[in-house]
Amino acid sequence: MYVGRDLSQLTMESKQDWQDKELGYFHYALSQSAPYLNSEGVTMLREINNEIKRRGGLTKREATWTHGTHPVTD
């Protein structure tokens, strides 16, 4: 489960100030609902994508016996 700042708090900040887990969570959430987003939502998703690219992508984790390779962003 995601525990962190909600989208209304984050929209007041630059995407550069967002944490990686916030970018990851909202990228996943907005991507899943992309067919239903209005132009503002699509713009926000594009900005999140650009920020993730600017940072060099989200961190890649190696798999272990107890953890998979996919970051969970509930």
Task: Explain what you see.
It comes from Halobacillus yeomjeoni. This is Cytosolic protein. The protein is globular, with a radius of gyration of 13 Å. The chain has helices at residues 7-10, 20-32, 39-54. Helix 2 packs across helix 3. It has a domain at 29-57. It has 3 helices and no strands. The longest helix is centred in the middle third of the chain and has 16 residues, at 39-54. Helices cover 45% and strands 0% of the residues. With 74 residues, it is mainly α.
- The total strand number stands at 0
In helices, the fraction of residues equals: 40-55%
**Structural class designation:** mainly alpha
Q: Span from first to last CA?
A: 5 Å
Give me the strand/helix succession. HHH
- What portion of residues belong to β-strands? under 5%
Q: What Rg, in angstroms, do the CA atoms define?
A: 13 Å
Quaternary structure annotation = single chain
The poorly predicted ranges are none
Helical stretch tally: 3
How would the global form be characterised? globular
Calculate the mean pLDDT score and round it.
87
